[in-house]
Amino acid sequence: MLSALPPPDDPRVLVGTSHADDAGVFRLSGEEALIGTLDFFTPIVDDPYTYGSIAAANSLSDVYAMGGEPLFALAIAAFPEDENTLPYLADVMAGAADKVKEAGICIIGGHTVKDKEPKFGLSVTGRVHPDRMWHNRGAKPGDAIVLTKPLGTGIATSAIKWGICPKETEEAVIASMSRLNANASKAGREVGISTATDVTGFGLIGHLLEVLEGSGLAAEIFLADVPVFHGVRELMKRKRVDALTGVRRFPGSEWVHATFGGHPIPAGTHQNMTHQLGRVRFPPMLPAEEAFLLSDPQTSGGLLMFVPEAKAEALCDALRAKGEGAWRIGRAIDADVLAMQRITVI
Q: What is the pTM of this model?
């Protein structure tokens, strides 16, 4: 899609479109560079305030994933011109405004258009020292790989839409998607990590591959150590017929769902798997559900951090001290230049 966009030839552009990074970076001086990013999506929860909050946290995440701090945001919204729907935009904006306030910034403008399907997000500008930014070419051989949030938001939000997600799982997933990656990023800066990225639409495998390929490395991932939200694996076994979603139960409805329904696995998961499968070596007889989890598209996912082994425990301690998750899920290793597969799942 970006092939028609010529690569930037301005020497002040430190990070552009060439390496699938989380955000663009533009040098202002020897001491400061601007980070620019934009993200928006359709509603993933029913509550408009929560939707705005999650969309804002997701948009801010790219700045944190570059090792920077946000400065201000612009809102982008598309809403139908419907007297029953349009008032919800104020609640969406309120959720976003409160979340960016939590990040220490504000929304200073934006743009809206009419559209049949609601969409909302932010363009965020941040700053970082040019010599201390994180990008997807910064991982080193031997780095421990640390993840700060569990996986499964794509599956869980599909189940929420279907009305089959347990309340405990729904609350945990929404709380995680609403949480900023600010403290996780701060912990990484304090400890001195090699680099980081955030886990979003391409899933854990997709974003890990971006860093490995950019850095010329491979990785081993320890499946048993990869965190997954409680209840998500059970949800993957449930089945529902889309046309009957939201319809009241009727005699034989569960049989209809179990016989003709599909699992709450997003289409994006299958698309991710198609693109990623040839570059990953899975264990023999691995259940398909486990592979799907590694490619599940995340919304406002955690940071995937690469840290020298000698600093790994210090990073995990710093993350936990700030109330963040810290799971060591693997390590980066030298890549065989002839090998197609970058990731080995153990």
A: 0.93
